[in-house]
Amino acid sequence: MTATQPPANAGRTRSTGALESSVLGILWQSLAELSVREVQAQLSAPRPSYSAVMTVLSRLEEKGQVARTTLSPRKIKFHPVRSESDHLAEQLLAILDRARDRQALLAGFAAALSPSEKATLRAALD
Asked: Are strands 66-72 and 34-35 parallel, antiparallel or unpaired?
């Protein structure tokens, strides 16, 4: 019986979810639309290939998280559809929807907030 060896690149690659998060973070920080190469240049090492970044951007577009502007057949720019805060609020609502006990989840969340965060939440509710 032989032991399964991890792939040669194990530990050096990002999961797709992590790469998607990194790409979205870059787009949210940018004040302008970015090309695939511009996004790729801002990713940390090990830098994924151009095609990997293009694939991630295409998948994010399919999910409705980014949109593209085609300036010419070889010049495509991307931008986020929603702000980071709107995206994260949507994720929080999805977690709340999966909770068996919404009240307990909300109470636990509220208990973990700082006084200033509680004040912000109260103001948003009013």
From this structure: unpaired
